[in-house]
Amino acid sequence: KVDICFSPELLHLYDLRGKVAVIVDILRASSTIVTALGEGVTHVFPVATLDECTAYGQEHGCLTAAERDGLPAAGFDLGNSPFGFLDARRPVQGRALSISTTNGTMALRRSLAADAVVVGSFLNLAAVADFVRAQGRDVLVVCAGWKGQFCLEDTVFGGALAARLTPDFDVRSSDATLAALHLWQQGEPNLSNYLLQSAHVRRLNSLEASKDFEFCLQIDAYAQVLPRWQHDRLINNG
Ligand code: MLT
């Protein structure tokens, strides 16, 4: 069965035990983490607070990335743009990363009771679908949302994943998944046009980060990357 939790604030309504949790923050935390691992970052520490991000950076000698309210937080190597990991002037290969973002890293930390925790984005949709299929367990897609509220792009990703898992998984016994599937079917023919209407895209546009938006919608650009939680970090299990 595939179910979708629209916001981390609703996680208390779900039992994560025995399930695969797919953490989604299309704009931009999950897309950025996938890009980082795809570009050779060895592992990622997703942390809740800025202080922890700094502390991990010092303790592990890793790169630090932090964002609050869509803007890079002061005092860190990087913000939350995937392009930060594609800049030849700052090679990231072989480095570890600690990252803290407004909603995405929080959603992940709240989902650790699941049997397996992976990070999903359009960039690695195939890797997530393959992993979930191989696990054969119930799935909960955990949308990071925005400050507790529903986000269109995260939900549309849930629909895309449900579509890939059809017919092997039951995607019809949850209204949340059904709704996400319908949104995906509506948006798929022109995803970028469809998601242009979403609140976070307007937020990113106003922060001049609209190129990040186009980047994050590339389906399967990192089809071999599967960030998976192991002990205290995300590693590429792809
Ligand atoms: C978040 O975690 O809230 C974000 O990924 C926001 C962003 O950087 O666009």
TrEMBL record:
Signal peptide: none
Enzyme class: hydrolase
Family per similarity comment: Belongs to the ComB family.
Gene Ontology molecular-function annotations: 2-phosphosulfolactate phosphatase activity; magnesium ion binding; sulfopyruvate decarboxylase activity
Pfam families attached to this UniProt entry: 2-ph_phosp (PF04029)
Catalytic activity line of the entry: (2R)-O-phospho-3-sulfolactate + H2O = (2R)-3-sulfolactate + phosphate
Domain of life: Bacteria
InterPro entries linked to this entry: ComB-like, ComB-like_sf
Keyword annotations from UniProtKB, A to Z: Hydrolase, Magnesium
Cofactor(s) this protein cannot do without: Mg(2+)
Name of the featured protein: Probable 2-phosphosulfolactate phosphatase
SUPFAM superfamilies according to UniProt: ComB-like
UniProt key word Hydrolase: yes
Organism this protein belongs to: Hymenobacter glacialis
EC number of this enzyme: 3.1.3.71
